Amino acid sequence: MDILVHAAEWFVGLFQAGATVFISWMGSIVPLVLMLLIAMNSLIQLIGEDKINRFAGKAAHNPVSRYMLLPFVGAFMLANPMVHSLGRFLPERYKPSYFASAAQFCHTSNGVFPHINPAELFIWLGIAQGVTTLGLSTGPLAIRYLLVGLVMNFVAGWVTDFTTAYVSKQQGVVLSAEPHVEG
């Protein structure tokens, strides 16, 4: 009987722990993301969706601007996870690649811009601790991490372009080459 009681307590405890985490998110990350969504949508309305569509459309024609410029500006201004929302302005065929590039940029920029992905700052801090222990500055490492990250994020985006095109052709799916944003 004790085994059943402990199993039931463990089972309920699992959900209590989940509820505790959920409530902590309701006081921290959920309002932050909500405010970022409101800010981004307000900015889009002030600038105008047509202008943003044209900018993203122009950026979409060039893989360097598509996988280096947009993720950099988006991550710096909007942070993770809002950087991914800029992908809505790209044509369907570039969205998987943009996501790949933007997702990686949120990690490789943490040393210089910790606000971009504070949830994973502990990774950077762990690496930085080793460098600091050696008596070295973390600044050069952070810049190198950012620059190598920009190049690798571009490569990831571009490789995903080819992968998406291959799978689309294989599956007989035609992805739009024009941006289409529904309000």
Description:
This protein is an all-alpha fold. The chain has seven helices and no strands. The protein has a domain at 49-171. It has helices at residues 2-26, 29-47, 49-60, 63-78, 95-108, 121-133, 139-171. Helix 4 (63-78) crosses helix 5 (95-108) and helix 5 runs antiparallel to helix 7. The longest helix has 33 residues, at 139-171. It is globular and about 65 Å long. The model has no long low-confidence stretch (mean pLDDT 83).
Structural key phrases:
0% strand, 7 helices, 183 residues, mainly alpha
Summarize this, please?
With 183 residues, the chain is mainly alpha-helical. The chain is built from seven helices and no strands.
List the helices and strands and how they pair.
Blueprint lengths: L1 H25 L2 H19 L1 H12 L2 H16 L16 H14 L12 H13 L5 H33 L12
Helices, by number, come to: 7
What's the helix-strand series? HHHHHHH
Please, what is the oligomeric state?
single chain
Distance between the termini: 58 Å
- Average pLDDT for all residues: 83
Low-confidence runs: none
Give the proportion of residues in helices.
over 70%
Give the strand content. under 5%
**Radius of gyration, whole Å:** 21 Å
Find the count of extended strands (DSSP E, 2+ residues). Answer: 0
Could you give a short account of the major beta sheet? none
Instruction: Assign an overall shape.
Output: globular
Structural class: mainly alpha
